[in-house]
């Protein structure tokens, strides 16, 4: 365990506060100091609420002194993607349109973290309306990767990935509709959990795609993700799509070994046309999992390109439906790339959308049949490491559109199927950029993914490495 509060994991700092080894005020002050150092370089925060956070930390310490603990996150400062409504606080959703939007309700996931004792540090940057894979934002500027400021963080949970990697917050809520948790986790070297559709309530989270949106955490470790999932998962009367499927003991799952688990490696698609360094990290990851007792087998999955295309189609149509009024009344207030994506959705015929939706059940059944013999699948989160901000900007050259398509090629199929997926830091390129592998699981079996991720992190240190503050 690090002695510097900002470098602790969520689990470690929560325990240190509970055991009175650290005060909430000390921890909050340490994070605010680090935020002041890093924010000018990263642009990871939308708002930094130093005075309110320190005041809340003082209250938390006073409560603790009286023997009053709200829950397992008592006094722990956190920041989240600026699309989770918090009554009385502005939620910009990364947009001009909602720059001054003050919700009157609090999202269920955020409220559950508040009930567990978390302190609000501020809010984190994101792609406009959570619709973009890079971290670019035409209104508020790009978020930068702490491992190399010239490179992207991935999106749309750009501030979440960047701030967790730089140790500016212990964890952050993100959202994943087409890869928006797993991309930043991969590119920034943190752990990110895309949950099963319905595992976590979406009430009070800005909608993008009604059938694809998922809520999940980004943190430093699988153990931290397990702690957060245990707090936010479960049914919710405010969200009819939140499942009553039984919950697991996610934290206990992180203590298990890999012995007896069978992990599949796709025979194609996820291993095709990989960047050589991503391919190397995949091989090294497989070797570690095998050494730790997992049985590694090849799996032949159904056509993943079809799933990827269908996911894009559904996302575009549903996002356009949500934004139609604003596109008519306020088109000038959108960034050019966001508006283009939304307008493309308006051109999708209803029949085409309905055919894609009707295919989701058979597609999931086919996937389950192909993966029936394995507990999880391991694959790269993306075929490439983080590109530069310049080369991934649509205005940056003729190759940018194809690059953007490639970024989320490996994440979109999982969204279409509604499955859970955990991305874990798995290595670095020779130039020092992180590479993450995603573990793809069975519906509502986040526990097995957390078991595998935690076991991998017990024998590797990629998640412990910290980027250096630019000079």
Overall body shape:
globular
The CATH class assignment is Alpha Beta
Helix/strand-derived category reads alpha/beta
The name of the CATH architecture is Alpha-Beta Complex
What do the pLDDT scores average to? 97
Strand segment tally: 11
- Looking at the chains present, what oligomeric state does this protein adopt? single chain
Assign a percent range to the helix content: 25-40%
Tell me what portion of residues adopts beta-strand conformation: 5-15%
The string of secondary-structure elements, in order, is: HHEHEHEHEHEEHHEHEHHHEHHHEEH
- Report how far the terminal alpha carbons are from each other: 27 Å
CATH superfamily: Amidase signature (AS) domain
| CATH fold descriptor | Amidase signature (AS) enzymes
Gyration radius from CA atoms, angstroms:
21 Å
Number of domains: 1
Strand order of the largest sheet: 4-6-5-10-11-9-7-8
Number of helices: 16
Summarize, please.
The chain has 471 residues and is of the alpha/beta class. It is built from 16 helices and 11 strands. Helix 9 links the parallel strand 7 and strand 8 (295-299).
């Amino acid at each position: 365990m690090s002695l510097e509060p900002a470098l602790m994991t969520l689990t470690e700092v929560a325990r240190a506060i509970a055991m009175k080894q650290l005060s909430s005020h000390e921890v909050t002050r340490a994070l605010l100091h680090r935020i002041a150092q890093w924010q000018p370089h990263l642009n990871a925060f939308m708002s930094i609420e130093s005075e309110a956070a320190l005041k809340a930390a003082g209250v938390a310490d006073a409560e603790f002194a009286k023997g009053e603990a709200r829950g397992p996150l008592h006094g722990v400062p956190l920041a989240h993607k600026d699309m989770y409504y918090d009554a009385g606080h502005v939620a910009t959703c990364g947009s001009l349109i909602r720059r001054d939007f003050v919700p009157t309700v609090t999202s269920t996931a955020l409220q559950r973290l508040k009930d567990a004792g978390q302190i609000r540090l501020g809010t984190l940057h994101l792609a406009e309306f959570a619709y973009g894979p890079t971290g670019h934002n035409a209104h508020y500027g790009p978020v930068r990767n702490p491992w190399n400021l010239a490179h992207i963080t991935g999106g749309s949970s750009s501030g979440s990935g960047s701030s967790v990697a730089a140790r500016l917050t212990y964890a952050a809520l993100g959202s994943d509709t087409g890869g928006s948790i797993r991309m930043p986790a991969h590119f920034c070297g943190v752990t990110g959990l895309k949950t099963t559709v319905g595992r976590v309530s979406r009430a009070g989270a800005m909608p993008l795609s009604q059938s694809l949106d998922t809520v999940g955490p980004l943190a430093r470790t699988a153990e931290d993700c397990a702690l957060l999932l245990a707090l936010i998962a479960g049914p919710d009367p405010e969200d009819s799509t939140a499942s009553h499927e039984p919950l697991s003991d996610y934290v206990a799952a992180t203590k298990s070994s890999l012995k007896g688990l069978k992990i599949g490696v796709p025979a194609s698609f996820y291993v095709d046309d990989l960047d050589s360094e991503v391919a190397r990290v995949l091989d090294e990851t497989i070797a570690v999992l095998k050494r730790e007792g997992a049985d590694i087998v090849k799996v032949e999955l159904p056509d993943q390109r079809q799933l990827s295309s269908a996911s894009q189609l559904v996302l575009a149509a549903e996002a356009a439906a949500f934004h139609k009024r604003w596109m008519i009344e306020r088109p000038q207030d959108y960034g050019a790339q966001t508006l283009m994506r939304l307008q493309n959705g308006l051109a999708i015929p209803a029949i085409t959308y309905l055919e894609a939706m009707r295919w989701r059940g058979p597609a999931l059944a086919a996937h389950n049949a192909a993966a029936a013999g394995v507990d999880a699948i391991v694959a790269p989160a993306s075929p490439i490491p983080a590109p530069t901000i310049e080369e991934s900007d649509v205005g940056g050259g003729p190759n940018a559109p194809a690059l953007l398509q490639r970024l989320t090629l490996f994440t979109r199929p999982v969204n279409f199927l509604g499955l859970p997926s955990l991305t874990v830091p798995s290595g670095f390129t020779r130039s020092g950029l992180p590479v993450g592998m995603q573990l793809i699981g069975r519906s509502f079996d986040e526990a097995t993914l957390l078991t595998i991720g935690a076991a991998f992190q017990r024998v590797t240190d990629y998640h412990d490495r910290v980027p250096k503050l630019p000079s």
